[in-house]
Amino acid sequence: MNDRTQIVVLAKRPRPGHVKTRLTPPYTPEEAADLAAAALADTLDAVAATPAAARVLAADAGPDDIGPDDLPPGFELVRQRGGGLDERLAWAFHDVHARRPLPVVLVGMDTPQLTAGLLTRAAAALEEHDAVFGPAADGGFWLLGLRRPDPALLLGVPMSRPDTGAAQLRRLSGLSVAMLPALIDVDDAADAREVAALAPYTRFAATLARFGTRPPAPLDVPPGDPHDAPPGVALAARLGAGAAR
Q1: Whose C-alpha in 39, 116, 126, 174 is 20 to 30 A from the C-alpha of 16?
Q2: Residue 127, Cα to own-chain centre: how many angstroms?
Q3: DSSP for 83-107?
Q4: Coil, strand, or helix at residue 126?
Q5: How confident is the model at residue 218 (pLDDT cuts 50, 70, 90)?
Q6: Predicted local confidence at residue 71, as pLDDT
Q7: 43-77 residues labelled b (16+ CB within 10 A) or e (exposed)
Q8: What percentage of the chain reaches a pLDDT higher than 90?
Q9: What transmembrane ranges does the database entry give (predicted)?
Q10: Which pLDDT belongs to residue 229?
Q11: Is 60 exceeded by the pLDDT of residue 237?
């Protein structure tokens, strides 16, 4: 059990027309926002189930959008700052580490198939390595963990490109880096269908099924499934103004 690592979720408000725009078409902006909200809720659940020194939501929300009382139990709030994604990532690492000088693992909200087991593995890797890296199938990365975060490790890395992951790994040159399995980021409809099929018991898969694309595995949640008591649904609904159902 690792309880010396902080886990951060970098989240974008699931607002129609502002999130998951590559899902439109075939999905409407409202449906894309619903899928984003479901993915966020699944991600928060995985983090909630992982032993950690702190669980943090790094939100692009203002004070009128979300407050500490809106967070799931056990989560803290850090507001994103900076312009590009490289800046928002760099300062999220910096601001969380400034609160507690402990290792930081950061994930986004595009991999609803994320599990507590993967997060626990990432945290354990930072006991022996300087960094841990989870590559994404599209050439980016779905997780980055740093034992001693430094904004210089991220600032200026080109984001949202097929070579983003390779560029980020070059920036970590000289550090000991542990690698995690590659995961699929949900960017377009094909990604959404594949991820839902891989993780059929997620809220993301159930939401996609409501829109007419069903994963091959049953969607009925078995008794005792950890999603019976989800900590992330209320927050996703708050951020998305009802996007999560």
Answers
A1: 116
A2: 22
A3: SSHHHHHHHHHHHHHHHS-S-EEEE
A4: coil
A5: very low
A6: 82
A7: bbbbbbebebebbbbbbbbeeeebeeebbbeebee
A8: 78
A9: none
A10: 40
A11: no
Task: Using alpha carbons only, give the angle 128, 184, 230 rounded to the nearest 5 degrees.
Answer: 80
How far apart, in whole angstroms, are the C-alpha atoms of residue 20 and residue 38? 12
Q: 200-204: long-range contacts at Cβ-Cβ below 8 A with a sequence spacing of 24 or more?
A: 201/225, 201/227, 202/38, 202/42, 202/112, 202/113, 202/227, 203/38, 203/39, 203/41, 203/42, 203/112, 203/227, 203/230, 203/233, 203/244, 204/35, 204/38, 204/39, 204/42, 204/112, 204/113
AA letter at 31: E
Q: Is the pLDDT of residue 107 over 80?
A: yes
CB 79 within 8 A of CB 95: no
Identify whether the C-beta of residue 7 lies closer than 8 Å to the C-beta of residue 30. no
Cα separation, 111 vs 121, in Å, equals: 16
Average pLDDT for 103-114: 98
pTM greater than 0.70 (yes/no): yes
Strand residue runs (E) in the chain: 6-11, 54-59, 75-79, 104-107, 131-135, 141-146, 177-179
Q: What does the alpha-carbon distance between residue 185 and residue 27 come to, in Å, rounded to a whole number?
A: 17
- Encode pLDDT of 152-196 as tens digits: 999 999 999 999 999 999 999 999 999 999 999 999 999 999 999
Q: Is 66 helix (H, G, I), strand (E, B) or coil?
A: coil
Query: Mind giving me the DSSP string for 5-38?
Result: -EEEEEE----TTTS-GGGTTTS-HHHHHHHHHH
Q: What domains are defined for the chain?
A: 6-240 (3.90.550.10)
State the sign of the Cα–Cα–Cα–Cα dihedral 116, 117, 119, 124. positive
**How many whole angstroms separate alpha carbon 192 and alpha carbon 50?**
25
